[in-house]
């Protein structure tokens, strides 16, 4: 045996790649796991952590899936999705969003999460800068890092409902900027960018290119489009002068209460759709055949259940906001969409109760989990360390109880 054998690393976690070691755990999923663990011990935890509709998938969508199984639709599908679903999505985007695309611009994936990962992996070279509007959805940052890009965080102010302005974007652009990404309606703030705001953002990107800069791609995550209380969802991809630079990401999880089915999509220039198809062909192949038939029923079917769910989210937003405003020290925003509220809780930093010391928003979340048995997510994970995210995708009674418990626990801190 060679003497080198003495120095051999033992098989085990020390062999993990730098890539995975430098990846943070998804904090939304992590908080959900912690709540589940406490509940398994018999503790009555109210979970307002995961952004997951508490509604059932509408019946006509379930029926389409059952039919697909009964008809034996159980084989691999084309990697980019079944042709009728790609066509259905393209038609929906033309009709509802005024984004001019055809089936060849669409790639269906295992959730919008995979669509976002595909797009970033296909666009970003090591060192490319990706401007992420903060507060941002937790996975954006880690996905950019996985793609070896450099995240550049630009934060919106509470006074502007946390929305980044065109001027802020302009100031953050450098010759290395390759993409910008944001969600509207936004996870975690519920903010909705207006037509004027998005047009101003698009102009900044266009002017950069007209002044000789490299193209900048706009990754617009519209997964909460149907949960919008403003009366208008505006898609930046509908602006003709910038349409070649826009990638629209969307999915079925939120609007159709289909989180477990795992269907999302990207719509973008054909060359990028082809690249995503190629990427996905090596990593996951097409998403579940049955789920694609269900998604087709969703996109071509009656939107009444979707609109009813949105009404319920609006009522819960009002309820949560009203109750939170009664708690001293909490500064709430005014979500105009999605199903989150994102209050500033920094007034409680530096306070303590018993063995608990609240140094930051994570400490506060752990205190509320253990003391109030309410599970929410710290703002740090979303790039906003003064805040916490409370999901309002829960029954009214649960929201009331949870906020009442939060109020009682916060009152003990001194
Ligand atoms: N984007 C945003 C902003 C989200 O909140 C989510 C929720 N998980 C996703 C993308 C991904 O959704 P999914 O993979 O379930 O389609
Ligand atoms: N998007 C949801 C959330 O933000 C689901 C969890 C996740 O995929 O991160 O809570």
Could you characterize what this model shows?
This protein has 414 residues and is α/β, with parallel strands linked by helices. It folds into two domains: 16-55 and 305-411, Aspartate Aminotransferase, domain 1; 59-301, Aspartate Aminotransferase, domain 2 (3-Layer(aba) Sandwich). It contains 13 helices and 14 strands. The chain has a seven-stranded mixed sheet, sandwiched between helices. A three-stranded antiparallel sheet has the order 9-14-13. The protein has a two-stranded parallel ribbon with strand order 1-12. Helix 6 links the parallel strand 3 (129-134) and strand 4 (150-155). The protein is globular, with a radius of gyration of 22 Å. The mean pLDDT is 96. The chain binds 4'-deoxy-4'-aminopyridoxal-5'-phosphate and glutamic acid (GLU). 4'-deoxy-4'-aminopyridoxal-5'-phosphate binds at residues 51, 111-113, 137, 183, 187, 221, 223, 251, 253, 259, 264.
- Listing every helix as H and every strand as E from the N terminus to the C terminus, the arrangement reads HHEHHEHEHEHEHEEEHHHEEEHEEEH
Whole-number radius of gyration?
A: 22 Å
Name of the top-level CATH class of the largest domain: Alpha Beta
Describe the oligomeric state of these chains in a short phrase: single chain
How would you classify the helix and strand content by structural class?
alpha/beta
Number of self-contained structural domains: 2
Strand order of the largest sheet: 2-8-7-6-5-3-4
**What's the CATH architecture of the largest domain?**
3-Layer(aba) Sandwich
Helical content band: 40-55%
């Amino acid at each position: 045996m060679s003497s080198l054998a003495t120095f051999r690393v033992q098989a085990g976690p020390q062999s993990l790649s730098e890539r995975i070691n430098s990846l943070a755990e998804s904090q939304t999923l992590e908080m959900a796991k912690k709540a589940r663990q406490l509940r398994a011990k018999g503790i009555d935890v109210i979970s307002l952590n995961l952004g997951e509709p508490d509604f059932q998938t509408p019946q006509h969508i379930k029926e389409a899936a059952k039919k697909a199984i009964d008809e034996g639709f159980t084989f691999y599908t084309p990697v980019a999705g079944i042709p009728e679903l790609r066509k259905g999505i393209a038609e929906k985007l033309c009709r509802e969003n005024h984004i001019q695309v055809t089936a060849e611009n669409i790639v269906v994936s295992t959730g919008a999460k995979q669509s976002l990962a595909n797009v970033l992996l296909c666009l970003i070279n090591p060192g490319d800068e990706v401007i992420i509007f903060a507060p941002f959805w937790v996975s954006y940052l880690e996905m950019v890092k996985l793609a070896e890009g450099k995240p550049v965080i630009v934060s919106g102010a509470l006074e502007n409902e946390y929305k980044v302005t065109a001027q802020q974007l302009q100031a953050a652009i450098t010759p290395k900027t390759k993409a910008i990404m944001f969600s509207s309606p936004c996870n975690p703030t519920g903010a909705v960018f207006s037509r004027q705001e998005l047009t101003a953002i698009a102009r900044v990107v266009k002017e950069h290119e007209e002044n000789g800069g490299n193209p900048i791609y706009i990754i617009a995550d519209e997964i909460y489009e149907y949960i919008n209380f403003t009366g208008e969802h505006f898609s930046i991809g509908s602006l003709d002068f910038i349409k070649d630079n826009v990638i629209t990401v969307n999915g079925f999880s939120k609007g159709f209460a289909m989180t477990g089915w795992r269907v999302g999509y990207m719509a973008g220039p054909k060359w990028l759709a082809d690249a995503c198809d190629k990427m996905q062909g090596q990593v996951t192949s097409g998403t579940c055949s049955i789920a694609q038939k269900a998604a087709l029923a969703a996109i071509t079917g009656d939107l009444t259940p979707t609109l009813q769910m949105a009404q319920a989210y609006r009522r819960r937003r009002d309820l949560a906001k009203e109750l939170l405003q009664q708690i001293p020290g909490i500064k709430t925003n005014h979500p105009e969409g999605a199903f989150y509220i994102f209050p500033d809780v920094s007034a409680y930093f530096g306070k303590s109760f018993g063995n608990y010391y609240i140094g930051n928003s994570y400490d506060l979340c752990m205190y509320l989990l253990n003391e109030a048995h309410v599970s929410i997510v710290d703002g740090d994970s979303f790039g906003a360390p003064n805040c916490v995210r409370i999901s309002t995708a829960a029954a009214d009674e649960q929201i009331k109880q949870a906020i009442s418990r939060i109020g009682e626990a916060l009152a003990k801190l001194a």
